[in-house]
TrEMBL record:
The chain crosses the membrane at residues 7-26, 46-66, 78-97, 103-127, 139-162, 174-196, 234-254, 266-288, 295-313, 354-376, 382-401. Pfam families: ATG22. Residues 7-408 form the Major facilitator superfamily (MFS) profile domain. SUPFAM superfamilies: MFS general substrate transporter. The keyword Transmembrane applies. It is a multi-pass membrane protein. It is found in: Endomembrane system. PANTHER family: AUTOPHAGY-RELATED PROTEIN 22 (PTHR23519:SF1). PROSITE patterns: MFS. This is MFS transporter, UMF1 family. InterPro entries: Atg22-like, ATG22/LtaA_families, MFS_dom, MFS_trans_sf. The lineage of its organism: Bacteria, Pseudomonadati, Candidatus Kryptoniota, Candidatus Chryseopegocella. GO terms for molecular function: transmembrane transporter activity.
Length: 411
C-alpha cells in the first residue's frame, strides 16, 4: 500500500468525524438543545456546558489508561472502532430528543462525546505510523484540512433540513439532521477500519490490560521529571485547549442569542468559515515544517486572543464574520500543530501512552471552560461577559508555551 494512499485513508477519518463536531456540538444540536429542549431557559447555557463538561471529565479520567492499554496490546484500531460506534449510535438516537427531554438530551450528548473524544486517543496515535517525523506537521495539517472539508460537506448536506426556524412543521427536519451526522460519520469512517493496518507488538504472555495500563500510567507520573519538556507542553495545551473547546460548543449559541442569527444564517456563517479553516490547516501545516511547530502554534494562539476579544466587541453580523474568518484559520492550524508538536517531542515507543496524556490534558481542560462560560452567561444573562474570559485561557497558554523546547525526548 502506498504511503500517500495510507495518509489519505487516515485523513478520511478526520473527514468523517467532523460531521459530529460541526452538526452536533457547533451548530444544529447545540442551538436545538438550548432553544427547544430547555425551552430557551436562561439556565440553558449552563446545562449545555455541564453536559459537555461531564463527558470531558469521563474522557479525561479514562484517556491515560486507554492509551497505555492500547500501546501494550497493539489494539488501537479495536478501541477506535468501539468508541466510534458509541458516538455514531448515540448521535442517531438524538433524533428522539424533543421539547422538555433535558435529561435524555444531556445523556446522549455525554455518551456521543465520550465516543468522539475517546476515539481520538487512538486515531492521533496512528500519525507516527503512517509518516516520518519530518512530515508530522504537513500530514497533521492535511488531516485537519480534510476534517474541515468534511464539515463543509456535512453542512451542505444538512442545509436543506435546517432552513427556516424552529416551527412545528420544521421540527422533524431539524431532528433528522442528527441522523445525517450519524450516517455521515459511519459511511466515511469505514475505509479506515477496512484498509489501515497497525503495527503489531504482540505480547508473549497473557496479562491484565487494565493492570498493565495502570502500572504504565504510574510509571509515567513517577518519572515525570524525565519528561519535563513534555509536561511543559501539556500544561500549556491544558489551558489553551480549554479556550478552543469553549469557543466550539458556544459559537452558534452566541451567534443565535447575542447577534440574532437565524438558523439559515448560522449554517451560512459556518459554511463560510470552513473555507478559512481548510486553508489555515494546510498553510500552517507547511509553515510548521518550515519554521517549527512552536513558533507556528504561538502565531495561532495570538489569533485566538484576537478572536475572543473581538467577539466581545462585535455589534453586528458583518464584524462577527470577520472574527469567524480569523477563528477558522486559527482553529484547524492550532489543533493540527499541537498534534504534530506532540508527535515530535514524545519517545516513539511510548507514543500511544503519551497521546493518552495528550488527550487527558485536552479533555480535562474542557471541563472548566464550558462550565465557566455557561455559569457566567446564566448568572449575568450576558454572553458577552462570558466570552471575554476565554481570552485569558489563550494568553496564559501562549505564555506557558514559550517554556517548551522543540526537540525529541532523549532517554
Amino acid at each position: 500500500m502506498g504511503n500517500r494512499f495510507k495518509i489519505f485513508i487516515w485523513t478520511l477519518f478526520d473527514f468523517a468525524n467532523t460531521s459530529f463536531s460541526v452538526l452536533i456540538l457547533t451548530t444544529a444540536y447545540s442551538v436545538y438543545f438550548r432553544e427547544i429542549v430547555t425551552g430557551n431557559s436562561q439556565i440553558g447555557d449552563f446545562l449545555w456546558g455541564l453536559a459537555f463538561s461531564i463527558s470531558m471529565f469521563i474522557v479525561a479520567f479514562i484517556s491515560p489508561f486507554l492509551g497505555a492499554i492500547a500501546d501494550y496490546g497493539s489494539n488501537k484500531k479495536t478501541f477506535l472502532l468501539i468508541f466510534t460506534l458509541l458516538c455514531i449510535v448515540s448521535t442517531g438516537l438524538m433524533f428522539f430528543v424533543e421539547r422538555g427531554d433535558v435529561l435524555l438530551g444531556m445523556i446522549l450528548l455525554i455518551l456521543a462525546n465520550i465516543g468522539f473524544e475517546g476515539g481520538l486517543v487512538f486515531y492521533d496515535a496512528f500519525l507516527p505510523e503512517i509518516t516520518s517525523e519530518r512530515s508530522y506537521g504537513r500530514v497533521s495539517g492535511y488531516g485537519f484540512a480534510m476534517g474541515y472539508v468534511g464539515s463543509f460537506i456535512s453542512l451542505l448536506v444538512a442545509f436543506p433540513f435546517l432552513k427556516g426556524e424552529f416551527t412545528p412543521e420544521n421540527m422533524f427536519n431539524v431532528r433528522f439532521t442528527f441522523v445525517v451526522a450519524s450516517l455521515f460519520f459511519l459511511v466515511f469512517s469505514l475505509p479506515f477500519f477496512l484498509i489501515i493496518k497497525e503495527k503489531k507488538n504482540p505480547s508473549q504472555e497473557k496479562v491484565s490490560y487494565f493492570k498493565i495500563g495502570l502500572e504504565r500510567v504510574k510509571s509515567t507520573f513517577k518519572n515525570a521529571t524525565r519528561y519535563k519538556n513534555i509536561g511543559n507542553f501539556l500544561l500549556s495545551y491544558f489551558i489553551y485547549a480549554d479556550g478552543i473547546n469553549t469557543v466550539i460548543i458556544f459559537a452558534s449559541i452566541f451567534a443565535r442569542h447575542t447577534l440574532n442569527f437565524s438558523l439559515t444564517e448560522i449554517l451560512t456563517f459556518f459554511l463560510t468559515v470552513q473555507s478559512t479553516a481548510i486553508l489555515g490547516s494546510v498553510v500552517f501545516g507547511v509553515i510548521a515544517d518550515s519554521i517549527g511547530q512552536k513558533k507556528t502554534l504561538s502565531i495561532t494562539l495570538l489569533m485566538w486572543v484576537i478572536t475572543a476579544i473581538g467577539a466581545y466587541f462585535c455589534v453586528d453580523k458583518t464584524s462577527f464574520y470577520i472574527i469567524g474568518f480569523i477563528a477558522g484559520s486559527a482553529m484547524g492550524s492550532s489543533q493540527s500543530t499541537s498534534r504534530s508538536l506532540m508527535s515530535k517531542i514524545v519517545p516513539f515507543e511510548k507514543k500511544t501512552e503519551f497521546f493518552g496524556f495528550y488527550s487527558f490534558f485536552g479533555k480535562s481542560s474542557a471541563i472548566l471552560g464550558p462550565l465557566v462560560f455557561g455559569f457566567v452567561s446564566s448568572l449575568t444573562g450576558s454572553q458577552r461577559i462570558a466570552v471575554i474570559s476565554v481570552a485569558l485561557f489563550f494568553i496564559a497558554g501562549l505564555i506557558l508555551l514559550q517554556r517548551v523546547r522543540e526537540e525529541k525526548f532523549q532517554g
